[in-house]
Amino acid sequence: MVFKLFSKLLGAFSAGTAVACALKCAISEENPLQAATSIIQQSLVKWNDNWDRRDVLSLIKPDKKKKVSDKEMEEKKAELKPTATRNIFLIRHGRYYSNEGVDEKRILTTFGLVQANLVGQRLKDLNLDFSKITHSTMTRAKETSKEIEKYFPDVTVESSDLLREGFPIETEPPLNIDQKIIHEDGPRIEAAFRKYFHRANASQETDSYEIIVCHGNVIRYCLLRALQVPPEFWNNFVLFHCSISRVSIDPEGYVLVHSAGDIGFMPHDLMTFK
After folding, report:
1. Which residues make Cβ contacts (< 8 Å) with residue 271, sequence separation at least 6?
2. What's a GO cellular component annotated to this UniProt protein (predicted)?
């Protein structure tokens, strides 16, 4: 029983932590379960409430010339505190001609067009009041967004170079990616995360719903960053073409991933990821 529970505890952590825990337990005279629990408690990462730099207290600029009363401080906090939740729907583009040498020729395949329409219909069926669609400026993302836009003719559409595909950070385990590419792509993708992932402004009165159409690497990286877990593991899970990943950010800055790569609405013979 102890061994089974110990194995489950090890499985919840990275390989490095698991090995360190196993080594300590192997040489420790204390109960293996107690030793494992001790290691786990020491390695827990604490949640940063001000991860988006929009915590109310961080928005209040101190006045060195005037002492602010407790009442005034509470009024200022109430003025700046958000009351709405942001909901972000991340859509990976549809299947495309990946063997083409230039982006302009990497258009959606027939499969990709069908996938894009299916995800558009799925989003429409959710019956949510979407306020904006933002897409990457790469051809496959633009074409996927265009199909989705047919279901939301009155929704504002924007494009962003920040959302273009790339390699955000070195992976774990390593993929031996050219460091120059990471150096160029990483800051841009991180900038995309900081621009689109944050709690609502105080002026936002109702919950919002936004669609972002972009790429697998960008989505996976942003999901991990939003959860405050090591982003180096972005390559360790698969996102199918036109899958839906939904993230909500509440007024306190709490992040909840409702789905990651949801593809259940897609017929089995249309599920692709390469």
Report:
1. 240, 241, 263
2. mitochondrial outer membrane
Token pair of 122, please?
């799925």
Is residue 151 within 8 A of residue 124, CB to CB? The reply is yes
- d(CA 50, CA 48) in angstroms, rounded, equals 5
Torsion of Cα atoms, 116 then 188 then 238 then 103, to 10°: 50
d(CA 94, CA 139): 11
- CA 70 to chain CA centroid, nearest Å: 37
Q: Which two tokens stand for residue 47?
A: 């949640």
The pTM score is 0.83
**What is the radius of gyration, based on Cα positions, of the chain?**
22
DSSP 6-31: HHHHHHTS-HHHHHHHHHHHHH-SS-
Length of the chain: 274
Residue 152 tokens, joined: 């939301």
Cβ-contact 144, 109 below 8 angstroms: no
Collect all residues with Cβ–Cβ distance below 8 Å to 177 and sequence separation of at least 6. Answer: 167, 170, 171
For 3-55, write each residue's pLDDT tens digit.
444 344 444 444 455 545 554 545 455 566 666 666 656 667 789 999 999 98
The count of C-alpha atoms lying within 13 angstroms of the C-alpha of 18, restricted to the half-sphere facing its C-beta, is 10
Task: State both tokens at 103.
Answer: 């982006």
How does residue 78 score in pLDDT terms, banded at 50, 70 and 90? confident
What pLDDT, in 10s, does the model give residues 206-254?
A: 999 999 999 999 999 999 999 999 999 999 999 999 999 999 999 999 9
